[in-house]
């Protein structure tokens, strides 16, 4: 997405045919690019339910649809909705909350690291094809 301590000195970054080399992290995110954290951070004061609704483009007052509620249940995160984001979550719970948040934002491209603790090859079949998942472990390489 971009790190402030690094400078692009040559070349261009193309995404869907457009030059995004000089775009900010926010502009790249608006294009639908998502990069995961190795260890998603704790954010006190931000409820997981509020983040999910923001990702879905809903107001905080809007209820989840039946399909959205089903996905929350599939990810086993129903009991975490009213908790501060990732505060006290295990590593697997953090990664599941991150995957669900990403999926909810309908990304054009996503890149993932460290999925094996929270996600299995079988479970990844629950995600629609639009959510491209790339990960590397000692046991499997999917590219």
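Q: What amino acid sequence fits the structure above?
A:
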């Amino acid at each position: 997405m971009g790190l402030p301590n690094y400078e692009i000195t040559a070349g261009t970054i193309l995404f869907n045919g457009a030059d995004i080399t000089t775009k900010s992290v926010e502009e790249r995110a608006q294009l639908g690019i998502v990069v995961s954290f190795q260890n998603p951070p704790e954010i006190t004061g931000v409820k997981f339910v509020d983040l999910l609704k923001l990702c879905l483009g809903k107001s905080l007052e809007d209820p989840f649809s039946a399909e959205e509620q089903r996905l929350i249940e599939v990810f086993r995160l129903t009991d975490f909705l009213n908790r501060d984001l990732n505060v006290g979550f295990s590593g697997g719970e953090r990664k599941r909350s991150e995957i669900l948040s990403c999926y909810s934002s309908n990304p054009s491209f996503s890149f993932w690291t460290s999925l094996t603790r929270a996600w299995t090859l079988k479970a990844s079949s629950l995600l629609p094809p639009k959510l491209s998942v790339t990960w590397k472990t000692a046991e499997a390489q999917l590219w």
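Q: And what stands out in the fold?
A: The CA atoms of residues 100 and 108 lie 15 Å apart.
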